[in-house]
Amino acid sequence: MTATQYQQMIFVNLPVNNLDASKKFFTELGYSLNEQFSDDKAASVVISDTIVAMLLTKPFYATFTKKEIADATKTSQVLICLSAESRAKVDELVEKAVAAGGTANDDVQDQGFMYGRSFDDLDGHSWEVVWMDPAAIQG
Length: 139
Prior knowledge:
By secondary structure, the chain is α/β, with parallel strands linked by helices. Helices cover 23% and strands 35% of the residues. The chain has helices spanning 19-28, 58-61, 87-99, 134-138, and strands at 10-16, 32-33, 42-46, 51-57, 79-83, 103-110, 114-120, 126-132. It is globular and about 45 Å long.
């Protein structure tokens, strides 16, 4: 990336009940932690060059909002969707999530050109994983 190019990033901030357990969960999915932006209140999970999940203890998360923190096991506020490079990679990530203690949702979406599955992490946040056939997108 040159000095004149800017690539926008997304930082998804998620409240978690147990920071150590959540860090272990996401590293078991194959993601790394950016220790520079991690401490005893937060962990920076690097999903890609432009996507970072910030896992925040609930007391720390509360310093960023005046709203009540939702219980993601009971309510839905956001669906986080990640792309995958193949159908097999969709299945692989969901299977890793389940093995790490997450819960697979039974809502497989197979429309031929698009394939997706989803899981809930340890705190109930919903993650969708989707593959789309590049030929169908280019049209």
